[in-house]
Amino acid sequence: RRRRVVCVDIPLLFEGGVPMRLLFGTIIVVACKPDLQLERLHKRNPDLTLEQCRQRIASQIPVEKKAAKAHVVIRNDEDLKSLKCQVQVTKANVAEKVSGKQHRGVELTWVVFG
Q1: Three-class DSSP labels, the chain
Q2: pLDDT by residue (tens digit) across 80-110?
Q3: Contacts of 1 by beta carbon, 8 Å cutoff, 6+ apart
Q4: What is the pLDDT of residue 57?
Q5: Dist CA 25 CA 45 (whole Å)
Q6: What band does 2 get if pLDDT is binned at 50, 70 and 90?
Q7: Between the CA of residue 72 and those of 2, 21, 44, 75, what are the distances in Å?
């Protein structure tokens, strides 16, 4: 019998308050250094000035505070290969948590909001 796990990507989960967090059994935060966060945000949004990017980041709970409240933290300070490796380990750990040692019968589904 297969078990299904739904992974939901919610960028502002912590800003939604405690009731939002209570909906989820395992909270995973992907975090990076603040300077890298600013650089990536600006690269993704070239229409924003650096100051606008700083303001957007400042309007949110700092990523390290989110990481402190998470069950699992994936560090995204390095290259894509490192990130992919951490994601694979995390997926295996979540599958094991849900179904025990034998996690071949776990189906992971990703849902992205935001």
Answers
A1: CCEEEEEEECCCCHHHCHHHHCCCCCCEEEECCHHHHHHHHHHHCCCCCHHHHHHHHHCCCCHHHHHHHCCEEEECCCCHHHHHHHHHHHHHHHHHHHHCCCCCCEEEEEEECC
A2: 999 999 998 988 888 787 776 655 555 556 5
A3: 105
A4: 96
A5: 32
A6: low
A7: 24, 14, 25, 10
Is this prediction's pTM over 0.85?
no
Query: Can you say how many angstroms the Cα of residue 7 is from the centroid of all Cα atoms in its chain?
Result: 10
What values do phi and psi take at 112, rounded to 5? -115, 125
The Cα-based distances of 3 to 10, 95, 111 in angstroms read 22, 9, 17
Mean pLDDT confidence for 40-47: 97
- Specify the amino acid at residue 66: K
What does DSSP say about strands 3-9 and 106-112: parallel, antiparallel, or unpaired? parallel
Radius of gyration of the chain (CA): 16
